């Protein structure tokens, strides 16, 4: 994972950040957007990048913990999105050790993160994520299929295996949706996505 974080730090230029911020959260989350509650909730955005999605959610009145291990992205996010509804945390998967034990969230999001973890770390991560989700809470994640960008290694992702691991941790599948990439560069490389949403019963 360290090599992936270093890869993101190396490309965290003004142009990269502008391109990242230029993507529409509404377009990114369109396959699961109806699952987002209207009421104000607590959200953990894991792999928050520059806070694009966190800011979008905060503008809807939610309280966000933006978890981002790459200092360059985290610092950019603090400057770009100085919202009182966003708190930033330097932490990483699979353990998320800086998130206090017992703290729970109504929604946990992982957008374009899962592909950077090997299966052994995914098993650890999903168990940790399950402890962070409040009763009746939701986990939303996007799984990347296809090659990764240079310097940011990716591992093959199996939606079926991810669902099995989540089920073993007490999470049940709410939605599975395959999707094309919204980025032209990814489309050329043949990148696609699977969106998964899980619920946690009491």
Sum up the overall morphology in one term. Answer: globular
Please give the order of strands in the largest beta sheet.
3-2-1-4-5-7-6
**Given the helix and strand composition, which structural class is it?**
alpha/beta
H-E order: HHHEHEHEEHEHEHE
Identify the CATH architecture: 3-Layer(aba) Sandwich
Helical content band: 25-40%
Terminal CA distance: 33 Å
CATH superfamily: Vaccinia Virus protein VP39
Question: Helical element count?
Answer: 8
The main β sheet shows up as:
7 strands, mixed
Number of domains: 1
CATH topological fold name: Rossmann fold
Which parts are unreliable, with pLDDT below 50 for 5 consecutive residues or more?
none
Short description:
With 202 residues, this protein is of the alpha/beta class.
What features would you describe in this structure?
By secondary structure, this protein is an alpha/beta fold. It has a single domain (2-200), classed as Rossmann fold. It has 8 helices and 7 strands, in the order αααβαβαββαβαβαβ. Strand 2, helix 5 (71-80) and strand 3 form a beta-alpha-beta unit. It starts with a helix and ends with a strand. 37% of the residues are buried.
């Amino acid at each position: 994972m360290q090599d992936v974080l270093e890869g993101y730090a190396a490309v965290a230029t003004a142009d990269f950040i502008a391109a990242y911020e230029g993507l529409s959260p509404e377009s990114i989350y369109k396959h699961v957007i109806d699952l987002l509650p209207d009421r104000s909730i607590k959200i953990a955005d894991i792999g928050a990048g520059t806070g694009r999605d966190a800011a979008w959610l905060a503008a809807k009145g939610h309280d966000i913990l933006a978890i981002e291990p790459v200092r360059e992205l985290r610092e950019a996010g603090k400057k770009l999105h100085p919202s009182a509804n966003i708190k930033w945390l330097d932490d990483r998967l699979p353990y998320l050790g800086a998130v206090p034990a017992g703290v729970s969230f109504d929604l946990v999001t992982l957008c374009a993160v899962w592909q950077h973890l090997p299966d052994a770390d995914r098993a650890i991560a999903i168990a940790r994520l399950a402890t962070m989700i409040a009763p009746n809470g939701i986990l939303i994640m996007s799984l990347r299929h296809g090659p990764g960008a240079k310097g940011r290694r990716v591992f093959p992702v199996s939606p079926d295996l991810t669902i099995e691991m989540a089920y073993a941790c007490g999470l049940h599948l709410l939605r599975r949706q395959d999707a094309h990439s919204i980025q032209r560069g990814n489309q050329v490389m043949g990148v696609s996505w699977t969106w998964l949403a899980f619920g946690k019963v009491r």
